[in-house]
Amino acid sequence: MKEIHTQVVIVGAGPAGLLLGQLLNRDGIDNVILERRSREYVEKRVRAGVIEFGIANFLEEAGAGARMRYEGLVHHGVEIRFERSSHRIALSDLASGKTITVYGQQEVVKDLVALRLNAGAELLFETEVKFIGGLTDDLAVVDAEGLDGSLRLTCDYVAGCDGSFGVANRSLPSSVVRRYERTYPFSWLGILAEAPPTTDELIYCRHERGFALYSMRSPTLSRLYLGVRPEEKLDEWSDDRIWDELDVRLATEEMPEINQGRIVERGITAMRSVVIEPMRFGRLLLAGDAAHIVPPTGAKGMNLALADVRVLSRALCEKIQHDDDALLDDYSATCLERVWRAEEFSNYMTQMLHPTHLDDFENGVQSARLRQAVTSLEASTVLARNYVDLNSL
Ligand code: FAS
Ligand code: PHB
To answer: What pTM, to 2 d.p., does this model score?
Structure first.
């Protein structure tokens, strides 16, 4: 068994793990990232698309924002559509001039992987962490299986950035863990298509047949979603059925149909909310999806993960370089206050935009909430501020 000692072991090379590695490198803290998938796999995974104002600035400050600033699409508003009428939420006007940047998560991952490899820092792909222990000992222990066989790492701290189904959140003692969970009665069918966007800004749409979202990745790539029943399978949705359904749900007089193109990626994602408390036990810190999941309706998943890393990197630096425990001791409480705010906003957006076929009263309440969101200055201001910069409020 090969043995490595380092100061911080980071489990997972998603946005959270990679950005944490970048920040620790910048602060001169020795760290190793272990990723169970291949580089090709993690760089091709299509997921989030919207970056909040403060998080875009944070990526730039971390030295990972150059291509995002050059290729990312800066948006000043978002549209909410229901009953075939369009209502623009003027994000920048309502949120002190702030904007969102539309830039795919896989592009953020590519940028961070390139930075790490160019810096010659350890990033072990196809290396799966099997065990995390020693959380209250003098050193933590991480056992992994990689291409070259078994690996044992000892370290001062382990950052569990391995997502919802990773090993880190299962390594917290069951006596201390509290898990909160909600599963929504629908999933999202998402496609990436070689079709020039039919709209300049994102469109969130509530239709009696279900939810639809029109997003994009570039002037030639559209990213679209349909709310579907949770039991639906991808092979029940032909290309024609997907485009027809998107047309029906998104149609207005001004935009009766949308541009179509070759679908290059497709998937169905369950809609869940999860919070795991605490986000720290001894030498193990959780960040990102390892600690929480939000339904993507509020475009918070990746932003929440990177906001955790903003707190964690400072806390680890204060502890390792100045032996100051304060930020590390407060890490979990500091993050969870923001995490629950994001859970509330994501739940608000999800409930309001997805009709339920189970409860007409709920539909009435949600429609009233939607009308208030687009007609009340106070309600649309709160929505805009949360959508554009919740993690920095
Ligand atoms: P990630 O899940 O991105 O990364 C965790 C990494 O850890 C993975 O690369 C995994 O391979 C690795 N790993 C797991 N176990 C390991 C082990 N034992 N050893 C080593 N490595 C291990 N958010 C939005 O805002 N908008 C969206 O539209 C959206 N769509 C999504 C679609 C899907 C299918 C999923 C799953 C999530 C989606 N999200 C979306 C949320 C998503 O963007 C996450 O919030 C974001 O990826 C969180 O980043 P990380 O916390 O780094 O976790
Ligand atoms: C995306 O572009 O993938 C996207 C945008 C907004 C969301 C979710 C996903 O709320």
So the answer is: 0.97
Q: Which of 65, 22, 61, 19 is nearest to 309 (CA)?
A: 19
Tokens at residue 103, please?
Answer: 């830039």
Extents of the domains making up the chain = 2-73+100-181+272-348, 184-271+355-388
Q: Whose CA is nearest to atom 18 of ligand 1?
A: 129
Q: Is the CB of 215 under 6 A from ligand 2?
A: yes
Tell the residue nearest (CA) to atom 33 of ligand 1.
47
Torsion sign over Cα 216, 221, 223, 224 = positive
How remote is the C-alpha of 188 from its chain's centroid? 15
* CB of residue 308 inside a 6 A radius of ligand 1: no
- pLDDT score recorded for residue 83: 93
Tokens 């920040």 belong to which residue?
23
Confidence label for 264 from pLDDT (cuts 50, 70 and 90): very high
Residue 118 has pLDDT above 90, yes or no: yes
- Number of Cβ within 10 Å of residue 38's Cβ equals 12
112/13 Cα distance (integer angstroms): 9
Ligand 1: which atom is nearest the Cα of residue 12?
7
* Residue 393 scores a pLDDT above 90: no
d(CA 322, CA 272): 39
Active site residue 348: no
Whether 300 is catalytic = yes
Interval between CA 109 and ligand 2 midpoint (Å):
16
Taking residues 182-208, report their average pLDDT.
97
Ligand 1 close to Cβ of residue 295 (< 6 A): no
The reported pLDDT for the residue numbered 170 is: 98
What number is the average pLDDT over the span 21-48? 97
Q: Vertex 182, ends 246 and 282: CA angle to 5°?
A: 125
Query: How far is 382 from 386, CA to CA, in rounded Å?
Result: 6
Which residue's CA is the closest to the ligand 2 atom numbered 6? 299
Which fold is adopted by the domain 2-73+100-181+272-348? FAD/NAD(P)-binding domain (3.50.50)
184-271+355-388: CATH homologous superfamily?
D-Amino Acid Oxidase, subunit A, domain 2 (3.30.9.10)
